[in-house]
């Protein structure tokens, strides 16, 4: 069964960190480009970060540059989004997408004091 399962979201204070995980089953994640999107209440889904296959090339939207980092663990067939210095405006549901085809179920990130 092909699926992506996300985890790692939660409630964190401003300035804190979270690491989101996107674990794949049924296919080899490393073969595909990975996108992380987020959707805040009342807003459109936006692309936050991308990595080409093997995470050799990465892209980050301006608002997260220097704070978010994509990485991967091929042995675990998992891609991560490390989020540091979180801000209230980072509050959203975060989704991973593989190859433009498969979506995770989303994980809630709330940044609040």
3D structure, described in words:
The chain has strands at 3-7, 10-12, 18-25, 34-39, 46-51, 58-60, 68-73, 78-83, 92-98, 102-103, 107-111. It is globular. β5 and β6 (58-60) form a beta hairpin. Strands 2, 4, 5, 6, 9, 10 and 11 form a seven-stranded mixed sheet that branches. It is built from no helices and eleven strands. With 113 residues, the protein is mainly beta.
Task: Sum this structure up briefly.
With 113 residues, the chain is mainly beta.
**Strand pairing plus helix content: what structural class?**
mainly beta
Radius of gyration: 13 Å
Q: Element order, helices and strands?
A: EEEEEEEEEEE
Distance between the termini: 40 Å
Describe the sheet with the most strands: 7 strands, mixed
Write down the overall mean pLDDT.
95
| Fraction of residues in β-strands | over 45%
Helix count, DSSP H or I runs of 4 or more residues: 0
Helix content: under 10%
Q: Low-confidence segments, ≥5 residues, pLDDT <50? A: none
Count the strands?
11
Shape: globular
Would you spell out the secondary-structure blueprint of this structure?
Layout: E1 3-7, E2 10-12, E3 18-25, E4 34-39, E5 46-51, E6 58-60, E7 68-73, E8 78-83, E9 92-98, E10 102-103, E11 107-111
Parallel strand pairs: 2-11
Antiparallel strand pairs: 1-3, 3-8, 4-5, 4-9, 5-6, 7-8, 9-10, 9-11
